[in-house]
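Incident log, structure service

09:12 report received: a user says their structure output differs between two submissions of the same chain.
09:20 pulled the input from the user's history:
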Amino acid sequence: MVRLNKNGGPRNPEKIDRMCALFTDLSSKDMKRDLYIVAHVIRIGRMLLNDSKKGPPHLHYRRPYGCAVLSIVDVLQSISEIKEEKDFVLKVYT
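09:34 re-ran on a clean worker, output below:
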């Protein structure tokens, strides 16, 4: 999980480089299917953006903010072409 500050930047930028995932249970049959990495973005805070000081300050709600999708096929093709580490950018749809 990456926590963002009010400007949308990472709260702890030094932790971003240490975040990774390893999928070990994918067979070659699975890799031929349409697979996607899906990221759900959750907003934690007050219910309304214009709720300045209403209600107790300790009430924070979790609610959906956006979603991003990345095709595994695109990742595998890109990696096999350039044969080096590459960053992928996911567009978050709000």
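09:41 both user submissions now match this output. Likely a transient worker issue. Closing.
09:42 reviewer note: The CA atoms of residues 25 and 31 lie 11 Å apart. The chain has one domain: 13-82.
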